[in-house]
Amino acid sequence: MIKREFEKSYTERFGPNFVRELTEKICTHYNDYIRVNTLKISVADLKKRLENRGFRFKMFNNIPYALRVMEEPFSISSTPEYLLGYFYVQDGASMMPVIALDPKKEDLILDSCGAPGGKCSHISQLMNNDGVIVSLDIDRKRLKSQLFNLQRLGVKNVATFLLDAKQVRKIGILFDKVLVDPPCSASGVIWKEKKRLKSISKQQVEKYSKIQKDILTSSVKTLKHEGLIVYSTCSIEAEENEENVNFAEKELGLKCLKSEYFFPQVNNTHGFFYALMRKI
User: Fold this and answer.
1) Domain holding 23: CATH number?
2) Alpha helical stretches, state H, 187-241
3) pLDDT tens digits, the chain, 280 residues: what are they?
4) Are residues 76 and 209 in the same domain?
5) Are 98 and 179 in contact (CB under 8 A)?
6) 92: which DSSP letter?
7) Cα distance between residue 182 and residue 14, in whole Å
8) Is residue 251 within 8 Å of 200, Cβ to Cβ?
9) Dist. CA 103–CA 67, nearest whole Å
10) Is the dihedral of CA 172, 275, 150, 136 positive or negative?
11) Claim to verify: residue 24 and residue 111 sit in the same structural domain
12) What is the CA angle 40-41-47, rounded to 5?
């Protein structure tokens, strides 16, 4: 199932059993995750409401508000609780970049590629709807989705802009912390979206890698000295992940403090990568 052009790289980087174990895993059922929106409801109250309808959950990675949906009698997005903004459907691994960023309510934070609002609303949640988040996106349609999601979730501390992240310096602000979650090949989401097995190519990966470097370069220029930046993708390709971190360390004056991969067969999540870096 995995294209041969990717098999060699995966085996060299992750070991001889990686491709077989990944292939076996993506043939199984993917369970959704939800992030409880504690701006509106407690974890206990939401679990009780949904469990009364037959849903069952398992906490992810010791994060109380991150729940894996183990039993889903019908689409969890069809519940009144979803419409009321009590939770956001979001893979467990994709919650980790915001946790690594560790937002505080006194922070001024940039989300360089914010739509459709999952990570942006997570930042707001951890800031308890305080402080200021500036969120950018180049896609008008995705930005409309973000505005809808932020309103549904009760987020009030985000200023959204229709702006290419590569032009972020036009805002004229220096930020305490920056999240860069740029467009990527999404090679990590093949468990849920198996059609990507056929569509992903090395040429695509190289194209995205260049875009990611450009967005990283622009975003770093808006970061205060000693400020923190988290870079993340739902890709498992070296060109989009560790190679971009190496570029950031060599060319952009960043120091990597921590990086982490997630894999379907290891973590029961999408394939995902994030790196926490400091501007030095």
Assistant:
1) 3.30.70.1170
2) 196-199, 202-220
3) 799 899 999 999 999 999 999 999 999 999 999 999 999 999 999 999 999 999 999 999 999 999 999 999 999 999 999 999 999 999 999 999 999 999 999 999 999 999 999 999 999 999 999 999 999 999 999 999 999 999 999 999 999 999 999 999 888 999 999 999 999 999 999 999 998 888 999 999 999 999 999 999 999 999 999 999 999 999 999 999 999 999 999 999 999 999 999 999 999 999 999 999 999 9
4) no
5) yes
6) G
7) 24
8) no
9) 21
10) positive
11) no
12) 145
Strand order from edge to edge, sheet including 175-180: 158-162, 132-137, 108-111, 175-180, 223-233, 272-279, 254-262
Whole-prediction pTM? 0.97
* Among 42, 39, 41, CA closest to 151: 39
Q: ∠ at Cα 144 (140, 147), nearest 5°?
A: 135
19 and 124 part of one domain: no
Residues 51, 36: Cα–Cα separation, whole Å:
14
Alpha helices in the chain (DSSP H): 4-14, 18-26, 43-51, 80-83, 96-101, 118-126, 140-153, 196-199, 202-220, 242-251, 264-267
List the 56-60 sheet strands across, edge first: 56-60, 63-71, 33-36, 87-89
Kindly list the catalytic residues. Answer: 234
Listed residue (196, 198, 245, 248) closest to 221, CA to CA: 248
DSSP structure class, residue 255: E
Question: CA dihedral defined by 230, 135, 262, 8, rounded to 10 degrees?
Answer: -90
- State which residues form the domain around 110: 92-279
β-pair partners for 230? 179, 276
Co-location of 80 and 218 in the same domain: no
